[in-house]
Amino acid sequence: MQYKTLGFVALILCGNIHAQDSLPTLKDGKAPQTLDELWGGYDPRKEPLETEILKEWEEEGVVCRLIRYQVGVFKGAPSKVAAFYAFPKGGVKVPAVLQMHGGGQSAGLDGVLADAKNGYAGISLNWGGNKLNFGRSKMTYDGPQTDWGKLDATHPPQRNKANHFAGALTPDEFTLDAVESPRNSNWFLVLMAARRAITFLEQQPEVDPAKIGVTGHSMGGKLTTDLAGIDKRVKAAVPSCGGAGNILESQASDLPGCVTSKSSDFEMACVADNAYIPRIACPILWLSPVNDFHGTINNMAWNWRNVPEPLARFSMAPHLNHVHTPAFSITRNLWFEQYLKGSFKMPATPKLEMDLKTASGIPLMTVMPADGAAAKQVDVYYSIGLNNKTRFWRSAKVVRKEAVWEAACPVMSLDEPFFVYANVTYDTPEKYRNLAQSLGNANSDVYTLSSRMLTATPVLLKAAGVKATDRPERMIDDGSRGWQDWYQSNWGHPPLWRASTRKLTDPKWRGPDGSKLLFEIRCEADNALVVTFNCNGWGAIQPGKPTVDYVAVKELKGSPEWQTVAITASELVALDLKVKEPLANWQTVTEFSICPSGETVKDGQKIKAGGKAWQGPREIRNLRWEDGQYVSRRPIDSKLSDEEYQKQFNASINKSLEQEKLDRMQK
């Protein structure tokens, strides 16, 4: 590894600092009311970037730089953003990818290094101002960083107590305008930084300015979607877990399952993704799991309905929240290979047709992959859960009939909406199975594309003559399909692996009152198993009441034989120390998890439980209910208060950041 540190005496590549503000003052104090008014007249190429190279080194055939460039001058002071920039040594006219991190995250060296090894130039913006993430590199840096000057678009806010990403756009000392304005939104400021980053890429001699792509995760996913809509220099985009758009409360009755908001008219016209999505003209891949708390699938399905089919693809993993499995994350690489390099061709979006008027009264789905002969596997997932974050996606039995695949999807009730989508899996071409990947990501021998999600409201189900033919089942999972109805976390970490499922929240498998839950497991050495029941997640079952985790610790004897674990609701203890009562019944369970490590409560205090490395296979069978009686309950379409929703939203961000740390530990 070779490197040189330029430190605080930065190398200025162009121009001098301009005192004149980059944006004009508001005319007659009137804030922009449309996207054209917001961005009209703005030229991201006009002002010098004042680029500083803060550090430069070479690593594994890649030239790496830590740079800082000027977004603009606002209120008389410059705003500057730091970024990692990397490109293949000796590269000529290579395509480039702009990366944007999510909430609470920072620019990552690993990501641009991986892109550079794969033949791209890469830039990762540190718009949030947090400590730079050098990943697996041994590099360190303590010099100048992102500095928004007299504004504050950091995340979380480090100077401004007001959150102008999620809060009101009323003026304060850190906002651009002295009146309520979309220019006071931090989304606007970071988008401006992203547009200036594209200008930076255009000016680099090793970059082909006609082949620039953009990607980002979570908040970066929203930024990616919006950037694709407002800047025509973007030639391909992959938003991850963000960019679904807003749904107003007034639309809720017509669009079940969506997350609704009280957005003002000018927020919808200037800040929400809704304003940008109709302007998208580049190929765009929606990469988000179907239970994501930020990239809400129902909102996306409605707001993206008019994105032209030739431009859009979808890759949506079942059961997951804010992470991807390799078969889905690899589509990001393949998308850029196709549209920035021209070396790959992805099949078109699978077609999904829903037939509600069947002779049996059971909804019938037909999947038509664009390249049926190449399809390795076809899956159909459907759900009747109102809350998109806690719903369980049933895996329907799929039958191939020549060039199409069919799946019957029986329902238990006609009083709940019906959601369905399909996944089609293909073999990854050999040349893309050993790509460089950033920390926490992996290659895959297969990749998966998704259909658009379809919805049928209760009114539509009844009008079509659908019948409620499905019945409750006590056998939840016999184990014959492995972990298909579960999602896995920390699988490479023997003491911390976790398997989780939302299957118990589905009325078909919801626990009878007074029943006990049993399953069988094999454990080759003495260990503990922490079983966790997440109850009322996101207020899905009991509006206005908190989410509570109930746990029990089960001691296991080392043996090659199957052993039975039995759990009653009365033995569970709440991890919320304010909750003293045991779980009354199983009706509020929204997620069930097993793990060799966790927490429990003893003598009124939380303590660590388990923690030993697991030995032997990780498999269970015959997860089932015994005893008890079924009680009929009508579904609840719950909605959290704004305060409680934000609390759970922030908790999900923190959980995601913690999971990223664990992912890095496993590499």
Q: What assembly state would you assign to the polypeptide chains in this entry? A: single chain
DSSP summary, beta strand count: 34
CATH superfamily of the largest domain: Alpha/Beta hydrolase fold, catalytic domain
How many helices does DSSP assign?
10
What is the fold-level CATH name, i.e. the topology of the largest domain? Answer: Rossmann fold
Low-confidence stretches: 5-18
Approximately what portion of the residues adopt beta-strand conformation? Answer: 25-35%
Largest sheet: 11 strands, mixed
**Class by alpha and beta content:** alpha+beta
Distance between the termini: 21 Å
Helix % is 10-25%
CATH class of the largest domain: Alpha Beta
Shape: globular
Count of domain modules: 3
Which architecture of the largest domain would the CATH scheme give at its second level? 3-Layer(aba) Sandwich
Mean pLDDT: 93
